Amino acid sequence: MDKLRAALISLGCPKNQVDAEMIIARLEENGFELSDMSDGAVDVIIVNTCGFIDEAKREAIENILDAIEMKKDGETQAVVVTGCLSEVYKEEILKEFPEIDAVVGIGSNGDIADICRKAVEGSREAYFRPKCDLPLDGARHLLSPDHWAYLKIAEGCSNRCTYCAIPDIRGDFRSRKEEEIISEAKQLADVGVKELIVVAQDTTRYGEDLYGEPKLADLLEKLCEIDGIEWIRILYCYPDRITDRLLQVMRDNEKIVHYIDLPLQHADGKVLKLMNRTGDDKTLRELINKIRSYMPDVVIRTTFITGFPGEGEKEFETLAEFVRDMRFDRLGCFAYSPQEGTPAYSFENQVDEQTKVDRGENIMELQRTIVDEKNEELMGRVLKVFVEGYDGYLDCYMGRSYMDAPEIDTIIYFTSENSYEEGDFAEVMITDLQDYDLIGRENID
Fold this sequence. Notes:
This protein starts with a strand and ends with a strand. The chain has helices at residues 14-29, 54-72, 84-89, 92-96, 112-120, 166-170, 178-190, 208-211, 216-224, 244-252, 269-274, 281-294, 313-326, 353-377; strands at 5-10, 33-34, 44-49, 78-83, 102-104, 125-127, 148-152, 154-155, 174-175, 195-199, 231-234, 256-261, 299-306, 330-335, 382-391, 396-400, 412-415, 425-434, 437-442. Helices cover 35% and strands 22% of the residues. The protein contains 14 helices and 19 strands. The model has no long low-confidence stretch (mean pLDDT 95). It has a six-stranded parallel sheet with strand order 2-1-3-4-5-6, with helices on both faces. Strands 7-10-11-12-13-14 form a six-stranded parallel sheet. Strands 15-16-17-19-18 form a five-stranded mixed beta barrel. Strand 13 (299-306), helix 13 and strand 14 form a beta-alpha-beta unit. With 445 residues, it is of the alpha/beta class. Helix 13 packs parallel to helix 14 (353-377).
């Protein structure tokens, strides 16, 4: 019997990408052939959705509609929807989109092969095992380049920020066992991965549920012992859980790049309290200064939300002044997106949409000035660059320094008389700027 052919569209965050990689591996283990549809029609299209904010929901729905059109045109027999949007709307998706053949909650991802077969055979069902049944371990078919990969160390979230639906979508925080993470990291190193990007909804909470205390620092030390791994990068840290021990481990292990992703969301104490987050302008300044005292060359990426209910001009100015003073290396700012079912959705003192957007743009204008000044300071510096490939159009190589996470931050374009492959390292002198990106040449001194 011919193999069933499947195509997967994966949207959203790195954690969702890891889920997609495990879905593909599960399908391959069960006899499916994966295709990007460039070779013609497939039997089933799987859309792995994001549903965190309204913009992500719109993108997910657009991709679902595209898949439905392919089904109408005879390019596929079945459409299967999984991921966060499935958890948000459940069976409602089948009602709204009668052309969809299966809607799959994250807890049923382990059954994806059987579900796809049934969908191709004409079944039309919803599948929702408990969220805690989502497989955290198992084979992955990497969607990232061969030289770097995400390493998901936990699933779910228990922080209960009032604006966030993730605990309801993904369930409570649950750590993977340390030995399983180390085993996976070794397997990744064996297939050529040189950079591990550690992810979870809250990486700094890792281990609390299994071991009674945070264990991220211990885990990082053990990851540093793996041969072949040269860079380890940490995303999605929670400010309350940045400990001296974690900073010491980051400082003292040269494989851990001095880069920390620290979503702060706001700086005003009143707004943070409404968000069900702790801290205020004073304590967050102290935290940033402490991080920089341990690692003077650290790159801090953060995100903020403007227009949260209760944010008046005074609270916004506290945030703007904080951004001006702290001079973050990387920053994203988003207008508050009310999510039905979250506490903040029904808060009083909602901010009008235009004000939310204007405030977000003001923060990004501030940040643009800061980034331009910081980039100017890089002129003439030699950076170690992780080569991502060759740009034939620009006739140069491209890569990243320790300051840049893949698919998020700055790209460095550089010329060289030598040949490089993806995953090589090069010494590059920065000579020019192009928007947010850097231009350089191989340093031959």
